[in-house]
Amino acid sequence: MKVFLIVVLVLAVIYSAMTYAANKKVERQKYRVEKTIEGIEIRFYPRAVVATVKSPGERYMDRSDDNFRSLAGYIFGGNSSSEKIAMTAPVHMEVDSAMNRMSFVMPAGYDLDNLPRPDNSSVSISYSKEGYYAAIKFGGFANNHKIEENIAELKTILGKLGYKALGGYTYLGYNAPWDVVNRENEVIVEINYQP
Asked: Given Cys at both, which of 29, 34, 148, 157 links 105, Cβ 3.0 to 4.6 Å?
């Protein structure tokens, strides 16, 4: 029994190291940290090209599997040129009223003119809004409760610092669902920051 547990532990460590290394190779959305204060970062995000799908849902994780499949279908070749497009991180998730949105950021080098059109009409391509955003980080597996907790904490910190949120809060997930360790999550919101 002891040998079995040691083997399982060794395999888990190897698997974790491999997924960690693979995640570090994935292109990440660019931003510039303006400052770190009270446990949050103030960042400038330039505009980026995003593929987005909307669906009914009042919470961040509502229909997330369906939304992910639609976007994955697009980047895995479900487009006008059957082109495979590299996965990037993070995945963006937003909610407002009774709709939620999931977006994949397209790799650097793509713009609205050279990106293939989605085969799936529910996938739209657009530019994200550039601006200054406050970000709070958290680890582990994300769920609606953890996301809402971090939104509440970010709101409290922003109130203390005198910043105003200029829109809705966005959840950012950096890991594949099967990653077990070193999971990265964030909540961001555009704010009235003046450099």
From this structure: 29
